[in-house]
Amino acid sequence: MSLARFSLNQATIKLASLETAVRLAVEAGIPAIGLWREPVQQYGVARSVTLVRDAGLRVSSLCRGGFFTMTEGADRRSALDDNRRALDEAADLGAPALVLVVGGLPAGSRDLAGARARVADALAELVPHARAAGVVLAIEPLHPMYVSDRAVVSTLEQALDLAAPFPATEVGVVVDTFHLWWDPTLPAQLARAGREGRIASYQVCDWVTPIAADPLLSRGIPGDGDIDFAAFTSLVSATGYAGDIECEVFRQEIWDADPAEIVKRAAAAFDRLVSPHL
Amino acid sequence: MSLARFSLNQATIKLASLETAVRLAVEAGIPAIGLWREPVQQYGVARSVTLVRDAGLRVSSLCRGGFFTMTEGADRRSALDDNRRALDEAADLGAPALVLVVGGLPAGSRDLAGARARVADALAELVPHARAAGVVLAIEPLHPMYVSDRAVVSTLEQALDLAAPFPATEVGVVVDTFHLWWDPTLPAQLARAGREGRIASYQVCDWVTPIAADPLLSRGIPGDGDIDFAAFTSLVSATGYAGDIECEVFRQEIWDADPAEIVKRAAAAFDRLVSPHL
Lengths: 278, 278
Fold this sequence. Notes:
The structure is a homodimer of 278-residue chains.
Chain A: E1 6-9, H1 18-27, E2 32-36, H2 37-43, H3 45-55, E3 58-66, H4 74-93, E4 97-101, H5 112-133, E5 136-139, H6 156-163, E6 171-176, H7 177-180, H8 186-195, E7 199-204, E8 206-207, E9 219-220, H9 229-238, E10 245-247, H10 252-256, H11 259-274
Parallel strand pairs in A: 1-2, 1-10, 2-3, 3-4, 4-5, 5-6, 6-7, 7-10
Antiparallel strand pairs in A: 8-9
Helix pairs in contact in A: 1-3, 4-5
C-alpha cells in the first residue's frame, strides 16, 4: 500500500481516544494524523505533542479555528483570542495549518455580506499571530448547504479572494472534496490556488446520498459515494501540492463501527482511489 | 396589498387540487399561478387551460421538464420526447417558460462533466421545438446539495453559460432565492443575466435551518428563514426583470396546513418582503 502522503483525520474515528487513534495510525502504517482541538485539550496539549512525536507521526493539520463572524463585542474578542490559542497549539504540535471553519450568520441576522466582511477583518487581525507561530490560517470553504449555520465561505474562489491580501505562508485554503466537488469552476480555481501557492490541506471524503438527516454526517469513505477521486486528485496534483492528504469522514455508521476496521478501510480507499493520481 | 406581480406556485399547496388552487388564488387577489405537469395532466390539459383562463389567471410557468442527463439510448430519447410534450403543454397553457430541472448523475456514474455536457446537448435538441412552441426553456440551477441526485446545474453562472449559445427567447434561466442566495458571485451573475435578457422566472422562498430530514422539503415562506429578500429582489429588479414572481415552497408543515391560510401567508409575505423592492 502506498500511504506515504496519507493522514488519518481523527474525526473519522471520532469515538476513539487520541491514544487509540495514534496507535491505530501507526499500526496501519499511516505516517500522519490530523488532530482536533477538543481531544487534544482533553489529553493535554503537551502530552499530545509527546504522544504524536514518540509515535513518529506528522501532524498534518489542527482542526479548528474560525467561528468569528459575529459583530464586534466581547464574543468576537473571545473568539479571536481563542483562535490565537489555537494557532499556538498548532505550532506546539508541529501542524503546518490551522483549519478555519469561519462561522455562519449570527443569530437573527440575514446580512451575509456583512458576515463575509467580518471574516476578512478577522483574518487581518489574526495574521500577525499566525506569522509569529509559523502556522498557516487555512480557510475551509464549506458546502453551500452550511452557509447560514456554519460557514459563510462556500467556494474555493471566495476563499482564495479572502486569502489574497496576505502572504501564502500566512493564509491558505483547505481543499475538501466533499465541499467542493460540485463546483463547475473547480478546475480553474484549483489551478489558481496552485499558482498562488495557497493549498494548505487536501482532504478526501465522499458525497453520499441521500443526504443524512443530520447533513453534517453525510460524508463517506472515498468510493462510497459520487465523487470522482481520480479527476479531483489529478487536478490537485497538477497544482504541485505536495503535502499530506487527510481522510476526514463524519458519519454515524462509521463512528459506530470498529475504529481499527475503519482505519484499514480508509487507508485502502486512499491507496486505491487517491494515491495512483498523485 | 400589492400583489400585481405575485404568482402562486401550486406546489406551495401541493395537496390541494388544481381547482382549489385556482380558486384560492382568485379569492386572494393573486393574478397568476405557476403550474405543475402532474396535476395539470390529472385534470386534463385542455380542461386546465379553460379553468385558468376562465379564472382570469396568468400562468407564470409550467414545472417541469428536464431530467435528461442520461447517456444516449431509449431512456434519453423518451425523456427528450417528454420535454417536447411539456413544451406543448406550456404553450397550450400560455406559460411563457418551461422550468427545467436538468437531472443528476445517472445511476452508478461519477462523470459530472459528462452529465453537464449532456445538458448542453439536450438543450440544442429541444431548442427548435421551444422556438416553434414559443416557450422558453428555463434552466433552473438547483442548490449544490442536489447536484448528484437532481440537478448537475448548480449556479447561475453555469446556467447562463449553458444558455449562451441560444437566443434568450428560447433558452433562459430560473432565479430561485433558495437555490442561489448563498452564491458570492450572485450580484455579478444577476447583472449578467439582466444584460443577456435571460431571466425567465423569479421564484421566492426562504432557506430554513436546520435542513429538513428530506432536504427537498427545507424551504419556507419568505420571512421564515435566513434570506434577505430586500437585497435579493433589488438585484433582480435592477436587471429589468418585469415578469411574475412565484412563491414556491416545499415543506411538510406547509402542505399539512389549511391551504387557504398558506395562500394568505404567502401573499402577505410577498407584499411585505418582496413587493416594496420591485
